[in-house]
Write a structure and sequence with these properties.
Elements lengths: L10 E8 L5 E8 L2 H10 L3 E7 L14 H16 L4 H10 L4 H15 L4 H6 L7 H13 L2 H55 L8 H37 L1 H12 L4 H23 L4 H11 L3 H15 L4 H8 L4 H13 L2 H56 L1
Antiparallel strand pairs: 1-2, 1-3
Length: 409
């Protein structure tokens, strides 16, 4: 029995050496020690002259974060390499050393070392659950067992690209109005704290009662001047608490998921449809890979992106495991439109459930795309009107006394 040794973190080295033609060469390479780097250089026909750790930047620049887009690009590159007949280990080497993100480069070369050491690709990926979820690993495992790994990698890459595109559209729909509200609040706060007090000084010499609307704005301005640190501090605490509980509280995330689905327009037109699209795309990919339906539904629940749909899919899994048809289990959840259920029923009867699910995913992804575009077109004039009303009301409130004074004169 071989004792398992915890892997050391890869270190970036800079080296200089002499190649077979006597020409002096230099470069950078990640590795675990100087000795291993020298051995690797000799294997490449380079006589090492100097090998040392790459000095860290003066201000300790942070490593670039690995994003889901990086994983999607990696999947596509690896699939392309394998389709071209490049061996798996060599493909990892080419993709890893050519990656611009040092963190991603470390991750890929770490997986390559595991595969070189005799681990299967699935085992190597499962050591990094933060970047490769259960769905990803299950699909790779199915590809390895069936001997069609490059085909499954292409399916994974396509799945990742489509789901990332869908997430970007949903994010766009949610962040646009939120950004406008933030801008409107900042503009209003600046006017109340710095501009309105100037008008208040001017109005003190009028010797007449101010209009009720103007007095209301001045009172609001005084409140902001006296308590601005409480207002901004309270908002800061609220944002911090939101982020804190969003990262750590499952109950809070479930509450948000249910709340977002009830938001007018955004809920039914974008969030519901995007959840159905993700369900269909994920299940289609796993079904095409030959993953059993009960096992596939468990992974699909984790990839649904919404707690309401995740719970419903797990209920469907329980029903299917007792022998019920998928379309009957879907009908019982009351979440899926009749069109989707009918398409699944046809797929089950004809034995082409993966292609039917793919068509459902294509349809709902296009629906989300159109809904986001329509919402953006609708929001632009509404946002302009909203900003105009907020800023215009403050301007009118400040000029009302001047108009009143002019009328008296």
């Amino acid at each position: 029995m071989v004792a398992s040794v915890e892997k050391e973190e890869l270190i970036q080295f800079v080296w200089e050496g002499v190649d077979k033609n006597g020409k002096r060469v230099k470069g950078e390479q990640p590795g675990r020690s100087e000795t291993l780097i020298k051995a690797e250089l000799r294997r490449q026909g380079i006589k090492p002259v100097k090998v040392k750790k790459k000095p860290k930047p003066l201000f300790g620049a942070r490593k670039k974060k690995i994003t889901t887009k990086d994983i999607a690009v990696f999947s596509r590159q690896l699939a392309t390499m394998m389709s071209a007949g490049v061996p798996l280990v060599q493909a990892f080497d080419i993709v890893g050393r050519g990656h611009e993100n040092p963190s991603m480069q470390e991750l890929i070369l770490s997986i390559k070392d595991d595969v070189e050491g005799g681990s299967t690709l699935t085992e190597a990926l499962r050591k990094h659950p933060l970047y490769f979820d259960e769905l990803f690993c299950n699909l790779v495992e199915a590809g390895e067992q069936a001997g069609v790994l490059e085909v499954l990698l292409h399916k994974i890459a396509e799945y990742k690209e489509k789901t990332e595109s869908l997430k970007a559209k949903v994010k766009k729909a949610l962040t646009y109005p939120a950004a406008v509200v933030v801008v409107a609040f900042i503009v209003t706060a600046i006017l109340l704290i710095f501009v309105v007090p100037q008008f208040e000084e001017l109005f003190k010499g009028f010797g007449a009662d101010l209009p009720a609307f103007t007095q209301l704005v001045i009172n609001l301005s005084r409140f902001m001047q006296d308590n601005w640190y409480f207002v901004f501090g309270g908002i800061g605490v609220a944002i911090y608490a939101f982020i804190y509980f969003k990262k750590r509280s499952l109950a809070f995330n479930r509450f948000l998921d249910r709340l977002f689905l009830r938001i007018p327009i955004i809920g039914p037109q974008i969030l519901h449809k995007s959840a159905i699209a993700r369900f269909a795309r994920t299940l289609s990919t796993m079904s095409a890979a030959g993953v059993p339906l009960v096992e596939a539904l468990e992974s699909v629940a984790g990839a649904s992106g919404n707690a309401v749909y995740s719970d419903a899919i797990l209920e469907m899994r329980e029903a299917v495991s007792t022998g019920q048809q998928l379309q009957q289990a879907m009908r019982q959840t009351s979440l899926f439109p009749n069109m989707v259920i009918q398409m699944i029923a046809i797929g089950e009867e004809s034995g082409s459930i993966d292609s039917m699910l793919s068509k459902v995913a294509d349809f709902y992804e296009e629906e989300v795309d159109n809904a986001v575009d329509s919402l953006s077109s609708l929001m632009e004039p509404m946002i302009m009107a909203f900003l105009g009303v907020v800023v215009g009301s403050l301007v009118v409130a400040m000029y009302l006394p001047i108009f009143k004074l002019g009328a008296v004169v």
